[in-house]
Amino acid sequence: MNTAESFTRVLHERHSVRAYRPIPVPPALLEEVLALARLAPSGANLQPGSFIAVQGEVRRAMSADLVQAWRHQQQEAEDYSYFPDPMPMALKRRQMASAKALYEALGIAREDRVGRDAQFERNFHFFEAPVALVVTIGHDLGSGCYMDLGMALYGLMLAAQAHGLSTCAIGAMASYPSLIRRHLSLDSTSKIVCGIALGYADPEAAVNQTRTARTEVGEYFKTVGEG
Ligand SMILES: Cc1cc2nc3c(=O)[nH]c(=O)nc-3n(C[C@H](O)[C@H](O)[C@H](O)COP(=O)(O)O)c2cc1C
User: Fold this and answer.
1) DSSP letter string over 79-137?
2) First to last CA, the chain
3) Cβ of residue 99 lying under 6 Å from some atom of ligand 1
């Protein structure tokens, strides 16, 4: 397989994994994947953002508090806005299609609120992945730096995939930035961007059969002017 073929394969094979085998990830491998992620370009090479591996009792206590906060519908001001409110119908359709793919893989019916909530809670446990990362960014950085960090996040996902690991970004974490800062002893200069679950995919888990589609190139690409 040549370079283009193997890279294309990594791109196609990466997908969000929401169930993991209970096998530890060697620390050196995690560091290698993070270093590869940091090869991402960034404006003026600022390399914004940080990754925090959350382990042991800190992870257990933080996850427990996140679940409680969510169950009690506690509201926190988010550090940054993600989704448009209201969501335009064209985007809503994509959001609904990704949720449908997830719940169909799990065999959870649309009206099964309990089943959907149980799956949602798993976000706050980092899907029991052996590696739980919290991604932060400086409070004074602009939208461009979020774009830079996003490139590093995709670099992380692809590097992980190429090394036999899987990932899932967890935007749900961004709903509770103060709670997370408290558990990680961070001050308000760190904004909470998302969580990342990382580890070896459980191939038997139904949830990992979830696959999403992409829009056609013609929907987001056009040519203007003479060729
Ligand atoms: C920044 C970001 C945040 C995400 N947050 C969540 C999340 O909170 N929970 C979840 O189950 N999936 C989450 N996802 C996964 C998306 O649902 C997934 O990437 C999308 O449906 C496309 O599917 P794929 O990753 O399998 O290709 C997130 C993805 C990204 C990039």
Assistant:
1) SS--S-SSPPHHHHHHHHHHHHHHHHHHT--TT-HHHHHHHHHHHTTGGG-SEEEEEEE
2) 33
3) no
Give the phi and the psi of residue 42 in degrees, each rounded to 5: -155, 150
**CA of residue 196 to ligand 1 center, whole Å:** 10
Q: CA nearest 120: which of 102, 95, 135?
A: 102
Q: Structure tokens of 125? A: 């446990």
How remote is the CA of residue 168 from the centroid of ligand 1, in Å?
A: 6
- The confidence band for 1, taking pLDDT boundaries of 50, 70 and 90, is confident
168 in Cβ contact with 16 (< 8 Å): yes
User: 169 CB under 6 A from ligand 1?
Assistant: yes
Q: What is the value of pTM for the model shown? A: 0.97
> CA 7 to CA 159: how far, in whole Å?
10
Query: What pLDDT does 60 receive?
Result: 98
158: nearest Cα among 41, 44, 26, 13:
13
Q: How many CB atoms lie within 10 A of CB 180?
A: 24
Mean predicted confidence (pLDDT) in 218-224 = 96
